[in-house]
Amino acid sequence: KPEILEPGQEIPLTFTVYDAGSGNQIKLFNEVYDKLLHLIIVDSSLTYFAHVHPDLVDGSFTITTSLPKAGIYHLYLDCFLEHLQVQLRLQHLYQHLFVCCLCFLLPHNL
Questions:
Q1: DSSP letter at 109?
Q2: Using an 8 Å Cβ cutoff, are 28 and 81 in contact?
Q3: Residue 87 is inside which H or E element, if any?
Q4: pLDDT at 100
Q5: Engineered SS bond to 43: which of 48, 81, 102, 105, CB 3.0-4.6 Å?
Q6: What whole-number distance in Å separates Cα of residue 17 and Cα of residue 82?
Q7: Is the pLDDT reported for residue 94 higher than 60?
Q8: 31 burial via Cβ count (<10 Å: 0-12, 13-18, 19+)
Q9: pLDDT tens across 27-42, in order?
Q10: 72/26 Cα distance (integer angstroms)
């Protein structure tokens, strides 16, 4: 049974990035705007927005955050994977990888 989250509760988040083709964990990242990873948190009403930078610990990104009110939250990661650098430059693609990684629902009343 999933844990019920409360508004204002500290929530530890961990993100581990895997190669979709091989299933191997990706541990090498290049900085984008002076950080290895940017986490964007937005609620579904677009009234809450947070831009934070999780720390890289043992190959995974971790951060503790809180969400201010009940509702649906979308989390987006922005990072540049080191092993894709040459491929992305050769194909003239935008260097960042945007991934919608999860959605939180904080219930109004149970």
A1: -
A2: yes
A3: helix 85-91
A4: 41
A5: 48
A6: 12
A7: no
A8: exposed
A9: 888 887 888 888 888 8
A10: 29
Nearest CA among 5, 17, 20 for reference residue 79: 17
Of 105, 99, 97, which Cα lies nearest the Cα of 70?
A: 105
CB 44 within 8 A of CB 85: no
pTM: 0.72
**CB of 53 closer than 8 Å to CB of 15:** no
Nearest alpha carbon to residue 69 among 3, 6, 7: 7
Q: Which two tokens stand for residue 102?
A: 């999860």
Q: What is the DSSP string of 12-37?
A: EEEE--B-TTT-PBP--EE-BTTBSE
Residue 2 has pLDDT above 50, yes or no: yes
